[in-house]
Amino acid sequence: MIWNSNEPPLPGRPYDIRLGSQSAVATVTSIKYQINTNTLEHMAAKQLPCGGIGVCNLSLNREVAIDPFHEPPPTGSFMLLDRVTGRSVGTGMLNFALRRSQNIHRQHVDIDKQARAMVKSQKPAVLWFTGLSGAGKSTIANLVEKKLFAHGQHTYLLDGDNVRHGLNRDLGFTDAERVENVRRVAETAKLMIDAGLIVLSAFISPFRSERQLVRDLLEEGEFIEIYVDASLSVVEARDLKGLYKKASRGELKNFTGIDSSYEAPNSPDIHLKTEHMSPENAAETVIQALCERGAIR
Question: SS3 letters for the chain?
Answer without folding.
Answer: CEECCCCCCCCCCEEEEEECCEEEEEEEEEEEEEECCCCCCEECCCCCCCCCEEEEEEEECCCCCCCCCCCCHHHCEEEEECCCCCCEEEEEECCCCCCHHHHCCCCCCCCCHHHHHHHHCCCCEEEEEECCCCCCHHHHHHHHHHHHHHCCCCEEEEEHHHHCCCCCCCCCCCHHHHHHHHHHHHHHHHHHHHCCCEEEEECCCCCHHHHHHHHHHCCCCCEEEEEEECCHHHHHHHCCCCHHHHHHCCCCCCCECCCECCCCCCCCCEEEECCCCCHHHHHHHHHHHHHHHCCCC
